[in-house]
Design brief:
mainly alpha
Length: 426
């Protein structure tokens, strides 16, 4: 990595941390703010959370093409300004209409930040440093979310609307500060190796859908996010309360265990992950998560004491965190390596779109099921986890040797396609 790339990467990591901090700063308290502080009721509060998801689904396809045509930095700056306007106006809104419009602006801005930042990481990292760069991104995102939620929780007071106005104003100020910081980034060009498959650089969903490996990765990604991230704050928490008798404080402890596992294990597993095939790493995550669901089943269905049930439930979240730490240096670099030259923004946005869809469907399916059908809930999601292993091994057959295990080659490129293309000769 050159000095220019290193300087740009440091600013990008600051951007990742601050954007995650802003997300954790306000999103956990949106429901209370809209329903109670503004007195708009639970229906409007639920619509606000839905608007966040819908706004992301609308803008992400457009964001991919914009990143390809304009570059990730201008798109990121526009997203930050949009999020800042949405955040400030949300704090000042008193009617349902203005709250929903403000939430749409904030949600759209925050959704576009992630593929833009991910594409900047691709452009500012070399083949040998990309996995570590994405591992650092995931580490800082979790750290930012945790610290943001902690500080935000101490600032807000449901009896004082002013405390929420302050919260949203601080968030808007951070987005504007991030505009200043990111404006100083000078984007270098990521090196590419000669002899890579030639593909058109023009953004095209048709071209993306023609990449069999990318389509399989998107299917795998949907199952990953649906069976894990989509259950954290909905199905799994409902199951813990209803089936395992877990208290709300224990739920907080479980989420803390998840974050702690990621923070502690992230760089410990990185060297292990870098030396193995990506498809097999993802397959092993499926097995780990299957064990996590089995442990959750024991917590709620095994007839254990409350102490043992609590320990098992907290361990479930920790095991999910171990899998997440293994995925962070694997999934995002693989998306980048499947993208043809100049198409990383489109591919990152497509994968982010798949994630948003899974996070929207996951709670809708898992929440009601976990609350009333305890045993079927565990069995279904345990099978989904085993399905991750099967899908990952099938994906491995579509990848070139360099895509599946970059460390096996002395060098590699960002621009590579599916299994139809042979690996570049040594």
């Amino acid at each position: 990595m050159t000095r220019a790339m290193g300087a740009a990467m440091r600013r990008i990591h600051v951007g990742n941390a601050l954007s995650a901090f802003g997300l954790g700063f306000t999103v956990p308290y949106l429901y209370v703010y809209v329903a109670q502080v503004r007195g708009l009721g639970p229906m409007t509060a639920g619509l606000v959370l839905a608007v966040f998801a819908v706004a992301a689904l609308i803008v992400l396809p457009l964001a991919g093409r914009a990143i390809v045509r304009r570059g990730p930095l201008p798109v990121l700056l526009a997203a930050l300004l949009t999020a800042a306007i949405g955040s400030l106006s949300l704090g000042l809104s008193a009617s349902a209409a203005t709250v929903l419009l403000s939430a749409a602006a904030l949600g759209a801005g925050q959704a576009v930040m992630q593929p833009a930042l991910a594409t900047m990481i691709v452009d500012c990292s070399g083949p040998e440093t990309r996995s570590r760069a994405f591992a650092m991104q995931f580490f800082l995102q979790n750290l930012g979310l945790g610290i943001g939620g902690l500080i935000g929780g101490h600032l807000v007071d449901p009896t004082k609307a002013g405390s929420f106005i302050l919260l949203f104003a601080i968030q808007a100020a951070m987005f504007l500060l991030l505009v200043v910081v990111m404006s100083t980034v000078r984007m270098p060009h990521s090196p590419r190796i000669e002899g890579t498959p030639a593909q058109s650089a023009k953004g095209s969903w048709k071209q993306l859908l023609g990449n069999r490996a990318m389509v399989q990765l998107c299917v795998l990604g949907f199952v990953l996010f649906f069976a894990c991230y989509g259950q954290f704050e909905s199905g799994l928490s409902a199951y813990g309360v209803e089936a395992a008798g877990i208290s709300t404080s224990t739920l907080g402890t479980a989420l803390a265990a998840n974050t702690l596992m990621i923070v502690v294990a992230q760089f410990a597993v990185l060297r292990f992950v870098e030396r193995r095939k990506r498809s097999r790493v993802i397959a092993s995550v499926g097995l780990i998560w299957a064990v996590a669901w089995a442990v959750a089943g024991y917590a709620g269905l095994g007839g254990a004491s409350q102490e043992m049930a609590t320990a098992a439930f907290v361990s479930t979240y920790a095991l999910f965190g171990l899998g997440e730490a293994m995925l962070s240096p694997t999934l995002a670099p693989l998306v980048a390596d499947l993208a043809p030259a100049g198409m990383a923004g489109q591919y990152n946005s497509a994968f982010a779109l798949v994630k948003q869809l899974a996070l929207a469907v996951g709670p809708a399916v898992g929440g009601p099921m976990a609350a009333s059908l305890h045993a079927p809930y565990i069995v279904v999601f345990l099978l989904f986890s085993l399905g991750i292993t099967v899908l990952a091994l099938r994906l491995g057959r579509q990848l070139t040797a360099v895509q599946d295990q970059p460390s096996a080659a002395g060098s590699r490129v960002v621009a590579q396609g599916g299994a139809e293309q042979a690996p570049a000769p040594a």
